[in-house]
Amino acid sequence: IGIRGKNYVDPNLMPPNCLGLTLDSEAVREAERRREARAGEKVDTNPVSRALYDVGCFCLDELFEDRPIARFWFLETIARIPYFSYISMLHLYESFGWWRQPELRKVHNAQELNELHHLLIMEALGGNARWRDRFLGYHVAIGYYWAINALFLTSPAAAYEFMELLESHAVDTYSVFFKENKERLKTLPPPRVARSYYKAANLYLFDDFQVSKKPKTRRPPCDNLYDVFKNIAEDEAEHVKTMHACKDYSRVGEIVVSPHLGYQEDVDEEEKRRAWVEWSEYVNEGAEEDF
Q1: Which of 39, 142, 200, 266 has the fewest CB atoms within 10 Å, measured from its CB?
Q2: pTM as predicted
Q3: Rounded to an integer, what is the distance from CA 215 to the centroid of its chain?
Q4: HSE of 227 in the Cβ direction (CA atoms, 13 Å)?
């Protein structure tokens, strides 16, 4: 009826609407087709998983047309869930005396923390501004959690394979986005949560989910929003590699461990102790701020 409170702000003047960012869904589909045409980059999956994936991508295109940040918020809400499921099911397997491998849970923990920070970045940009987006995201996440649990119970390889498919889509989507909006993104500052994650004094867990890299070899810039989205795309590419390794491991392949363990011979015990003390102090400071 046209009545507005004194604190009302036009949604078009608030993030994410005021950022002026776009995402061409057809360009994302074309990027996916080009990737899958390259040798060794198509995720081999069963027909059911592929059909569910295609339906999900169609729904994303329809529900979040011209709203890329909201789309990314929804994706990151969902992207965390499989890692919760993997950890839950690995705990269950260990309770039954099967597949006792704590290093794998450690890697999934680091993966979930990375996805959490992607989610926090999208929230800082206003990706969860609409109630209906939050309602849909949270309810889909609950159902997805139990679906992945059931899938992992019957076939861990299929559970990892489906996530490899989703993470590959995330790489295509973020890559198209930061290239499409390059000039605009370079004029926008990074959210504080992004700098606190990518420029933290202790990046142990940041290194821990990147099983294909030696620790401390990837230290990306975070000077503007372009850097942030490029970093996220590169993070998702690392998740793809980790999911592929986990899928192979679940089929009695090479064991998946933390990269810190893999390069243990290069680690000084004093340095490990110092890093642990720094991390514990950081956690304690955060707890004191909360209370």
Answers
A1: 39
A2: 0.85
A3: 19
A4: 16
